[in-house]
# Entry
Amino acid sequence: MLRMLPFLIVLALWIWAFIDCLTTPEEEVRHLPKVVWVIIILLFGEVLLGPIAWLVAGKQRAGTQRRQAAWPSGTAGHPEYERPRAGRGTAPDDDPEFLASLKKDNKRHEDMLKQWEADLRRREEDLRGKDDPDTGGRG
# Structure
């Protein structure tokens, strides 16, 4: 029975970490998506790397939440690196400046294309003129 104890401890920790990860709300999962944590726990559970990684880095613990609440009132309960920004950026398709820059770039690219096409036509005409014996080209 004593020989089975290490195996049972590893198995119990593996199962506990897997169930804990599955039942943890998405907001409390840190660093990686929840699905990735489940895969890590399952793949590296036999050597305890997955469950230990989940315990150390995967789940936001109650002590972490209490520490955040202890920050001064000017930071609204968040340390500087986690404080929500007041001037959140908008999505690119909602940003009028970004859309205007796209229109400007599109216009510039259309102008460049027209210049290239005109240059190509001019070069083709020059080549046709050199090949045509009536216009005094080679021949």
About this structure: Residues 10 and 48 are 7 Å apart (CA to CA). Residues 96-131 form the longest helix (36 residues). Residues 66-71 have pLDDT under 50 and may be disordered. DSSP finds five helices and no strands in the chain.
